[in-house]
Backbone:
């Protein structure tokens, strides 16, 4: 996935001189995960900008750049460090279009590694996507494979609105697949049916999708990769829920006010009469994210996902 | 006893080996005054403005105050929402905004009516905005102003980004960003000025030090003697000017913008001024401020001193004053009338301007309207 993201950035920067990359260590170092590797040499320090250590300043500057007409792609080193920039994202990026009644927009991307499963230090395994979904004006996108990562990142850069682009750290070097070196995009706001099925709908995204695919083996399950968490593809979700009548939602964020809660409420509001079983959420627990020794107990495991599926199938 | 290596500006005592101490950096803070409160100007420093330009400057100052007073009145009548008055700060706002050229970009805080008036912003839109209608902040296409920012100091980084973008595109444009003494305490100030210094961004940081952040006095914002000197720690110049002296503000801003556009980096301009009014119409400054202090500053009125200067120069008299007041009032009346005549905003606009296109959910929700 790292190479796919890198390819997307390189191709888009080749195509569009307005695209600039900024963040901590994104230049000479190529980013701590090497997503921006080689861009500095290819495009120079004016377009691949090593910034001071200042998340608020970086995102704030990106908003100003976007207002001026550039298309900044920000890297926040880890999602756990994005919180000081939340003010800029919520108070400004999300609202500039409304505040100026369309004169200005914040066409920018904030990329950040996200999620657990890599045995990292505290603050390096965050999965707080729901925070960003709660702010109208922002879009939240999570790729689950290298090919999708490229297509979604290109869509995010070309999107007229600010996109929080969450890259599952666990998938950075886990999945290998061919990524076409052609210009293709994966549309935002659309979910993907990974496999069709009849008995149960399982919704997941990011690194949980891989686990989910293993968990559904042996079941006749329809699997949806949500991809854009906000605004999410209600049609695809509701259609599938109505078809199977049973829904399991898997995410590595905590249950309370998670995206699963929103999906669950939406399905209850619009597909209740089609349901044969209560909706089940398989999530991390409502606890402070543990350090690596306890992490495996925290994240949804294949067994827990299977148990969730078995629960809804009992009805 | 100090030991070890330090590469800072602090001068340490003698080390164990008896090596002499060194001064690595020292700095001075300049203060610029051109026009005093008796209307006497230092001609060697005064900006070269023609009589017509002086009159225009004066007329805009009066217009800004007239707008401000009308906004306060309309708020009292319940026709505008909460409004932050600029009274006392007209020279800081008008002087600096007039120093900007057409290609320059302005980033404002919420107390900046004078800036908007000086740029020729449609006055009816200002009334519209303060009455609670977003269409008032739809900046006309011919003006490079970003919509005003209410969260204190957060606009500083936007200005730095816009300046970096102008530099990247090799445009001859500078960026002017407004904030106050309260804003200078925020992390946004530090991150913004620091980045601007590192990237030599063509930006001018204009701090209107009006001595009060709601009820908190300047002394509680920083132990530093001036705000201007904070620039030193970011590697560029800071200057304090008399913020009630429209010539000093104009000159310092013009010089700083010029410098920025020549690629010589940012400047921090501290306009030393005073907020005569309450913080906003929701505030009562008599709870925390001494009347004597207020009276002292009222006597330093920024508009009066330009008038005295012009009178000495023979380009101001009572008849001219009446004419200026009449024109200002007529312009404000007209703007208010236009604002009042605007059709109410369409509730569908709430949806239209959240994203570039409607989401599936919004498509459902908008059917309520």
Residues:
């Amino acid at each position: 996935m790292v190479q796919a993201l890198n390819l997307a950035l390189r191709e888009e920067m080749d195509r569009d001189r307005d695209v600039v990359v900024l963040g901590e260590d994104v230049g000479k170092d190529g980013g701590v995960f090497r997503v921006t590797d080689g861009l500095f040499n290819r495009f120079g320090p004016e377009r691949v900008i090593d910034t001071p250590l200042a998340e608020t300043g970086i995102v704030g500057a990106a908003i100003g750049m976007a207002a001026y007409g550039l298309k900044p792609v920000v890297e926040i080193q880890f999602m756990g460090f994005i919180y000081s920039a939340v003010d800029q994202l919520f108070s400004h990026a999300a609202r500039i279009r409304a505040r100026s009644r369309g004169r200005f927009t914040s066409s920018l991307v904030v990329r950040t590694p996200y999620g657990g499963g890599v045995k990292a230090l505290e603050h390096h395994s965050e999965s707080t996507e729901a925070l960003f979904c709660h702010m109208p004006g922002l879009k939240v996108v999570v790729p689950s494979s290298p090919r999708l990562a490229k297509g979604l990142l290109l869509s995010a850069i070309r999107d007229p609105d600010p996109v929080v682009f969450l890259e599952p750290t666990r998938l950075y070097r886990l999945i290998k697949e061919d990524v076409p070196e052609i210009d293709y995009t994966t549309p935002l706001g659309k979910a993907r049916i990974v496999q069709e099925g009849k008995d149960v709908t399982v919704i997941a995204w990011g690194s949980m999708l891989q686990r989910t695919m293993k968990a559904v083996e042996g079941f006749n399950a329809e699997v949806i990769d949500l991809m854009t968490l906000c605004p999410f593809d209600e049609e695809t979700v509701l259609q599938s829920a109505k078809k199977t009548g049973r829904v399991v939602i898997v995410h590595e964020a905590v249950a309370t006010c998670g995206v699963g809660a929103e999906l669950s409420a939406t399905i209850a509001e619009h597909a209740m009469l089609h349901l044969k079983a209560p909706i089940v959420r398989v999530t991390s627990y409502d606890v402070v994210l543990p350090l690596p020794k306890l992490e495996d107990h925290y994240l949804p495991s294949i067994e827990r996902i299977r148990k969730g599926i078995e629960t809804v199938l009992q009805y | 006893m100090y030991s070890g290596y330090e590469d800072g500006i602090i001068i340490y005592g003698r080390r164990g080996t008896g090596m002499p101490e060194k001064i690595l950096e020292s700095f001075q803070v300049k203060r610029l005054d051109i026009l005093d409160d008796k209307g006497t100007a230092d001609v060697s420093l005064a900006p070269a403005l023609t009589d017509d330009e002086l009159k225009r400057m004066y007329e805009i100052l009066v217009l800004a105050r007239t707008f401000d007073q009308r906004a306060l009145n309309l708020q009292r009548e319940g026709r505008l929402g909460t409004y932050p008055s600029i009274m006392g700060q007209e020279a800081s706002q008008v002087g600096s905004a007039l120093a900007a050229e057409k290609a320059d970009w302005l980033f404002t805080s919420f107390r900046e009516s004078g800036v908007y008036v000086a740029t020729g912003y449609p006055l009816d839109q200002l009334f519209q905005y303060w009455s609670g209608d977003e269409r008032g902040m739809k900046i006309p296409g011919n003006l490079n102003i970003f919509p005003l920012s209410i969260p204190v100091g957060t606009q500083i980084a936007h200005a730095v980004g816009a300046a970096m973008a102008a530099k990247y595109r090799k445009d001859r444009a500078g960026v002017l960003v407004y904030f106050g003494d309260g804003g200078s305490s925020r992390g946004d100030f530090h991150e913004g000025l620091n980045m601007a210094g590192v990237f030599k961004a063509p930006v001018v940081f204009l701090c209107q030090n009006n001595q009060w952040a709601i009820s908190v006095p300047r002394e509680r914002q920083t132990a530093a003697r001036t705000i201007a000197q904070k620039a030193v720690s970011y590697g560029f110049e800071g200057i304090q000017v008399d913020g009630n002296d429209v010539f000093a503000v104009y000159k310092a801003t013009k010089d700083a913008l010029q410098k920025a556009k020549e690629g010589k980096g940012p400047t921090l301009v501290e306009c030393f001024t005073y907020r005569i009014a309450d913080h906003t119409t929701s505030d009562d400054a008599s709870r925390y401020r001494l009347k004597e202090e207020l009276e002292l500053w009222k006597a330093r009125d920024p508009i009066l001193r330009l008038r005295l200067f012009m009178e000495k120069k023979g380009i101001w008299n009572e008849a001219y004053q009446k004419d200026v007041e009449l024109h200002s009032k007529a312009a404000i009346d007209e703007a208010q009338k236009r604002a009042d005549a605007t059709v109410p905003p369409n509730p569908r606009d709430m949806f239209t301007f959240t994203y570039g296109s409607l989401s599936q959910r919004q498509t459902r929700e908008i059917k309520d309207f």
Observations:
- Chain B touches chain A through 47 residues (CB under 8 Å).
- Residues 51-76 of chain B form the longest helix (26 residues).
